[in-house]
Amino acid sequence: MTDYKLEDFLADENFQQWALAEEPLEGSRWQRASETSPAVAALVQEARQILIDWKRESSGLTDEKKLHAIEKILDQAKAPRRTRLVFWKRPVYWAAAVVVLAGGFTAWLVSEQKSERRYQYETLTSAVAEITEVKNTGTQIKNVVLPDQSKIQLAPGARISYAAMDSGGRFRDVWLDGEAFFEVVRIPSKPFRVRVNKILTTVLGTSFRISNNADQVSVTVTSGKVSVQEKLNDRHEKTGEVILLPNEKAVYHVTDGKLTRSLADAPEALQEVPDLDFEETPLPEILDKLQRVYGIQFEYDREQFRGCLMTIPLNGLPFYGKLDLISTTTKITYKVEGNKILITGNGCSQ
């Protein structure tokens, strides 16, 4: 058996092309190599996954930034300068650099994104004359009450700044770096706004959670109505706006600037939960009741499932747990499509 090493695959241009193909060619030399032993198969799989991860994580970077990332990590590893210069003579060897970067590049990328997040926060708040900042330097949730009596649960490591709310301004403005849950007091004449990175969230009175991670900003609504938009400059110009209702979520992707809407990760009941244990009940009636309880719309062919009678206990299960149990009991599948759930299938098992 050939004594393969990880770098043998990563530095091979033909292997790179094979590994990054949408459908790697069957019967290739790499597949045949994998079949020689479990150890080689594991190496091939590891090398392929590293290349895929590298391509995905570095897709938004310029060549200059990629080189900067490599140089910085190699400097920390005290790699000889001459080695680095030879290494970079041909772009094909970027992939081989992943041997060094498999852990280092991801750490560097997250660090750079966190630095950018802090920069955005500090740039936005520096333009405000009178501002108050609250930081959570502990390991537990920090409860904050704003001058308007709105409440904030500030996650560990997060911080907020807010402008004077008793002035004659049109808005109640808060800036966030990190994650927090907001319960906003309703004042129709003075909307409440939260600025995170390039995202501006505007509400009258509601409860919602904002999470500002290294690669995305997410806003999840618990009650009320929330407007989420990408703010491009100080004139409040925007490229798009998403209106969120309870159990809906908007996600702003930092790398590509896309703002998308979907359902919350864990939808909660919006009213007192009735008895959800059913006996010989048509599926459309079950879905109607779930729609009323959670405020989430189901799209499906009612006539197709009208004769589908179900005896099923749904009490005590989370929302998606209920759907999973319905799905496994019947011949249906469900798919989250934006802020709706699509139901498809050919009927129920007998």
Automatic annotation (TrEMBL):
Q: Where is the FecR protein domain?
A: 137-226
Superkingdom to which the source organism belongs: Bacteria
Q: Does the keyword Cell cycle apply?
A: no
Task: Give the stretches traversing the membrane.
Answer: 91-110
InterPro entries from the UniProt entry: FecR, FecR_C, Ferrdict_sens_TM
Domain annotation Protein FecR C-terminal: ranges: 276-343
The record's keywords, sorted A to Z, are: Membrane, Transmembrane, Transmembrane helix
Q: State whether keyword ATP-binding applies.
A: no
Q: Mind listing the GO molecular function terms for this protein?
A: sigma factor antagonist activity
PANTHER family in the cross-refs? PERIPLASMIC SIGNAL SENSOR AND SIGMA FACTOR ACTIVATOR FECR-RELATED, PROTEIN FECR
Q: What's the protein here called?
A: FecR family protein
- Which organism is this protein's natural source? Dyadobacter jiangsuensis
